[in-house]
């Protein structure tokens, strides 16, 4: 079966022969369990922080405030920096670990980096489940964060490099699908453990994170290393052997030679992080950084971290809050599956733009309802209105799940050339975790001060990011990774101006002179 290669009739492209082999599917599924671990960590924190026994043991001040009928604001019940640090410390640690993960990904390979991530996860889970004090709890979260840093660095690269071009988007989104499944799994676990008498349910919630941690570790032991990584590290024959195995054909010479050439160019780059700042690499860097910032300012992680807390703030009972979080988690999973099937058919831009409209409208509607029904001192959110708020949050979550969630990871992983790919992915993960940390640390305080306006704050950002996508994000559907520069960046109305060597002043002048003739054509970008 011939590979899909690049099928844009406007540009042409290379068709590499490739079958969709079982070994590729299995490898991608096992590698994507790194997303399962990440998602579980995102989902479990909001659940345990809404459990009274957990709050009594580690955050008694917050517990007393939630039980205080004279509290001056419904929106400020959970506003506590220590409670937010429990959630956000994981992402700060992941941010730091990313820099080390960039080195191991490049020098030791994608597979070994995933194994290191699994080991960090396992140790962190043990400390969290056995925590006797806040320090032990935070140290466990920091180790989990190190695992997140290593996994988020290696897994998207692994998936992009091992997948055939025509299904690269779908297989890469397995990572995000596993993130959403991890969140749903955590919500279900929290819903069950909250009902355990004896006050130890939160330990079970934190301890069951060991399940995805073990899956990732075992997966890393059995998956194949990517041909790109093997060739990059000088193992040419082994790289060719693996390429033949994963493509299911003997006709792999054209793709192999392209990988060898890309590796040769990559080895000429002695300082990949410095090289990222070169003019020709700025478009990929700008797009990747912007996508990570925008992904967090959709507000999704703030809502998924604290979904039970948020619903409790809006007047839902503890059990109802956890139940509502399960519903949003299920919508998250189902909508991500939509993205798996549509991203390589509809393209990246269409999904992002449609989702922008859907998220914007749902956030504004939520803000209006809460502004009218939930005040500082009273909660008039009736059963019917409460259900409607959950529906609107699900509408918002579904849009994110088939757009900014998976594509925020997919697009950066497929746009950097090999010589800067590891460094580019490191910056991508670093920026993502930095802003995830900011949102995790600030959300409950923002909720206290902005109240219902928090949803208007996020909707404003959604408008900005949709504008950015429409004008500045090129389509990367069905383009082989090593041909992104020629087929994508050099064809874009703005970014082609950067696709020249830094010292090639004559070419820069030519591009500038021709810029008007080949200016922006909105229709061409769709």
TrEMBL record:
Xref: InterPro entries: MFS_dom, MFS_STP/MST-like_plant, MFS_sugar_transport-like, MFS_trans_sf, STP/PLT_plant, Sugar/inositol_transpt, Sugar_transporter_CS
CDD domains: MFS_STP
Transmembrane intervals: 20-40, 82-100, 112-131, 137-159, 171-192, 204-224, 285-309, 321-343, 350-372, 384-405, 426-446, 452-473
Protein name: Major facilitator superfamily (MFS) profile domain-containing protein
PANTHER family in the cross-refs: IP12678P, SOLUTE CARRIER FAMILY 2, FACILITATED GLUCOSE TRANSPORTER
Gene Ontology terms: cellular component: membrane
Family listed: Belongs to the major facilitator superfamily. Phosphate:H(+) symporter (TC 2.A.1.9) family. Belongs to the major facilitator superfamily. Sugar transporter (TC 2.A.1.1) family.
Source taxon at top rank: Eukaryota
Domain (Major facilitator superfamily (MFS) profile): residue spans on this chain: 27-477
Primary localisation category: membrane
Keywords: Membrane, Sugar transport, Symport, Transmembrane, Transmembrane helix, Transport
GO molecular function list: monosaccharide transmembrane transporter activity; symporter activity
Subcellular location: Membrane
Entries under Gene3D superfamilies matching the protein: MFS general substrate transporter like domains
Membrane-related topology note: Multi-pass membrane protein
């Amino acid at each position: 079966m011939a590979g899909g290669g690049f099928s844009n009739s406007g540009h042409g492209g290379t068709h590499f022969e490739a079958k969709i082999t079982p070994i590729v599917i299995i490898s991608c599924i096992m590698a994507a369990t790194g997303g399962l671990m990440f998602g579980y960590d995102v989902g479990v924190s909001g659940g345990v922080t809404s459990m009274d026994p957990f709050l009594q043991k580690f955050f008694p001040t917050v517990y007393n405030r939630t039980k205080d009928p004279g509290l001056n604001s419904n929106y400020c019940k959970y506003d506590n920096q220590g409670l937010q640090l429990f959630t956000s410390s994981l992402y700060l640690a992941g941010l730091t670990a990313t820099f080390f993960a960039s080195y191991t990904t490049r020098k030791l390979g994608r597979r070994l980096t995933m194994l290191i991530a699994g080991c960090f996860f396992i140790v962190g889970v043990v400390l969290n489940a056995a925590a006797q004090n806040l320090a032990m709890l935070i140290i466990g979260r920091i180790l989990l964060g190190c695992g997140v840093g290593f996994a988020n660095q290696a897994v998207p690269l692994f998936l992009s490099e091992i997948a055939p071009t025509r299904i690269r988007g779908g297989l890469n989104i397995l990572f995000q699908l596993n993130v959403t499944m991890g969140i749903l799994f955590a919500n279900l676990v929290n819903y069950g453990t909250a009902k355990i008498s004896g006050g130890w349910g939160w330990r079970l919630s934190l301890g069951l994170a060991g399940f995805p941690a073990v899956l990732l570790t075992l997966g890393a032991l059995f998956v194949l290393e990517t041909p790109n990584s093997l060739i990059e590290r000088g193992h040419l024959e082994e790289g060719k052997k693996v390429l033949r195995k994963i493509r299911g054909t003997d006709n792999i010479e054209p793709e192999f030679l392209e990988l060898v050439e890309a590796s040769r160019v990559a080895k000429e780059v002695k300082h990949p992080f410095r090289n990222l700042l070169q003019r020709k690499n700025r478009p990929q860097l700008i797009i990747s950084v912007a996508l990570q910032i925008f992904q967090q300012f959709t507000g999704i992680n703030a809502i998924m971290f604290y979904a039970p807390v948020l619903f409790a703030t809006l007047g839902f009972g503890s059990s109802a809050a956890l139940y509502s979080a399960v519903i949003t988690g299920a919508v998250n999973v189902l909508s991500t599956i939509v993205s798996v099937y549509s991203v390589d058919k509809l393209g990246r831009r269409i999904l992002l733009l449609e989702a922008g409209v859907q998220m914007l409208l749902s956030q504004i509607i939520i803000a209006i309802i809460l502004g009218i029904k939930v005040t500082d001192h009273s909660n008039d959110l009736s059963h019917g209105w409460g259900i409607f708020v959950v529906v609107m949050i699900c509408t918002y979550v579904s849009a994110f799940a088939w757009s900014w969630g998976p594509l925020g990871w997919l697009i950066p992983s497929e746009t950097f050339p090999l010589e800067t790919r590891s460094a580019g992915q490191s910056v991508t993960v670093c920026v993502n975790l930095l802003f995830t940390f900011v949102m995790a640390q600030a959300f409950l305080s923002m909720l206290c001060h902005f109240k219902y306006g928090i949803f208007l704050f996020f909707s404003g950002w959604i408008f900005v990011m949709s504008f950015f996508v429409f004008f500045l994000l090129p389509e990367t559907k069905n383009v082989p990774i090593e041909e992104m520069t020629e087929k994508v960046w050099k064809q874009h109305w703005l970014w082609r101006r950067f696709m020249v060597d830094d010292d090639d002043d004559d070419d820069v002048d030519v591009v500038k002179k021709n810029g008007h003739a080949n200016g922006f054509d909105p229709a061409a970008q769709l």
